[in-house]
Design brief:
The chain is α/β, with parallel strands linked by helices. It has helices spanning about 15-20, 35-40, 55, 60-70, 85-90, 95-115, 135-140, 140-155, 170-180, 210-215, 230-240, 270-285, 295-305, 325-350, 360-385, 385-410, 415-435; strands at about 25-30, 75, 120-125, 160-165, 185-190, 190-195, 200, 205-210, 225-230, 250-255, 255-260, 260-265, 285-290. Helix 4 (about 60-70) runs parallel beside helix 13 (about 295-305), helix 14 (about 325-350) runs antiparallel to helix 15 and helix 16 (about 385-410) packs antiparallel against helix 17.
Length: about 450
């Protein structure tokens, strides 16, 4: 195909989602399903991994969906990644295939209704098989993928999300089955770099990723994502995909590693570090951001705090009531006004030479100026990273209060409150905004 993108997108999803993509806005999707269910106490099974959770632990699964929605996710994924007949039937669970898909969609819908958002429900289909060399199941893939796609479509998903698509002989039948439903289809490619730098599919270093891309090129996907891929390998994978694909890009990486049947939560990337990496992906044109195995609610909350924007809820509050001010906006006004106030006091005191706490001795003025500057820096930082900014505001606000205790006298509780209180309150509000950034 050369170096110029020629592969054009197909349907993306509901109109509001299309408008976000066309408006160059960011779409936040959820994080891990299976590994997060495991972290919440759901036992994993050798085949099917977490796919029986909707039958045996529906409350935990719904709670997970709700947590992602409240963290800012605008797309949640059904717990059907490891639910194809080609996986469950060899493990003696073939009679559960239909119920697993139906209940997974029902629980996702219940979570969406409980939170009251217009989030998209994406039906997950993967290349995960009991044995991807078994000729019987390889010959039945068109049948089993069609069954899975039709079950999800009949249950009412908004789109199909093809995940961890690997070698072409596995990915093509899944793509054909998903597209046949007439629903929007998003493609998730997964990659790993060999020692020589070649990008391969995740589970086989004998299958170059470019072969899968070229096999799928031209099919009408709405979004093409790099998913379940280590963070350092995301950038090169995006570059390879962009050589062929001219549509919306997504990234939802993994962190840690898998030892069947459990995810190993080792060296999990911190939410702030994920946000830093996501800034570079966003600069490359990525609009869909989320997480895969190992990345949980706190990671989605951090992504939403940095990149998310409000979406309309399906249920609004009673008419005539004022909309509550968002915590981050209140924090910005509070810390900004307090910082400006203390800078003005410092300047006035230094100019007048008065006998105030800010100018009584040079060191007190320096302390006030330094702490006011720290709070201004915290306010500025909070616009880029609320978690980092809130920490600085809390520390500087506490230091301001302690300094006021000694400069104004041990009985001057009011001086302490006036000095550091607004900054401490702003820091707490920013932290609340980080946790509740899905208040959309």
């Amino acid at each position: 195909m050369g170096n110029s993108p020629q592969w054009k997108p197909g349907p993306i999803g509901p109109l509001w989602l299309v408008e976000r993509i066309r408006g160059d806005q960011t779409v936040i999707i959820d994080g891990a399903g299976g590994s997060e269910l495991e972290a919440r106490g759901v036992p994993m099974i050798g085949q099917g991994w977490a796919s029986l959770a909707q039958l045996e632990y529906p409350g935990i699964l719904q709670e997970l969906h709700e947590d992602y929605l409240r963290a800012g996710a605008q797309v949640i994924t059904t717990n059907t990644f490891a639910a194809g007949r080609h996986l469950l039937e060899p493990g003696g669970m073939g009679d559960k295939v239909a119920d697993v898909h139906r209940r997974s969609v029902e629980i996702a819908m219940q979570a969406r209704k409980a939170v009251g958002t217009q989030a998209v429900i994406a039906g997950s289909i993967s290349c995960y098989m009991a044995d991807d060399t078994d000729p019987e199941w390889l010959a039945r893939l068109d049948e089993t993928y069609s069954e899975q796609a039709e079950l999800l479509a009949d249950a009412g998903v908004d789109l199909i999300m093809l995940e961890m698509m690997q070698q072409p002989e596995l990915a093509l039948p899944a793509a054909r089955a998903a597209i046949a439903t007439a629903l929007p289809v998003w493609l998730g490619l997964t990659a790993r770099r060999r020692a020589d730098g070649t990008l391969t599919v995740f589970d086989s270093d004998q299958h170059p990723l470019v072969d899968t891309i070229e096999a799928l090129a031209g099919l009408p996907f709405g979004v093409v994502s790099v998913m379940h891929t280590a963070v350092p390998d995301v950038g090169p994978s995006l570059h390879l995909i962009r050589r062929h694909w001219d549509g919306p890009l997504g990234v939802y990486p993994e962190s840690g590693y898998f030892e069947e049947p459990s995810w190993q939560f080792v060296d999990i990337i911190e939410p702030d570090a994920l946000v830093d990496a996501a800034r570079s992906w966003r600069a490359k044109g990525v609009q869909v951001l989320g997480g895969c195995c190992g990345l949980g609610v706190e990671h989605i909350s951090a992504l939403n705090s940095e990149f998310g924007e409000p979406t309309k809820a399906t249920r609004s509050g009673p008419r005539g009531r004022r909309r509550r001010r968002r915590p981050a906006r209140t924090a910005a006004w509070l810390s900004g006004i307090a910082s400006a106030w203390w800078v003005l006091i410092l300047i006035a005191s230094l100019v007048s030479g008065g006998d105030s706490a800010a100018s009584d001795a040079g060191i007190e003025g320096a302390v006030v100026g330094l702490l006011a500057a720290a709070n201004i820096a915290g306010t500025v930082l909070a616009f880029r990273n609320r978690l980092t900014g809130s920490r600085l505001l809390l520390l500087a606000g506490l230091a301001f209060s302690v300094s006021a205790l000694f400069m104004a006298g041990r009985n001057q509780l009011l001086a302490m409150i006036v000095s550091g209180g607004p900054f401490i309150a702003a820091g707490l509000l920013y932290r609340a905004a980080t946790r509740r950034s899905s208040d959309t």
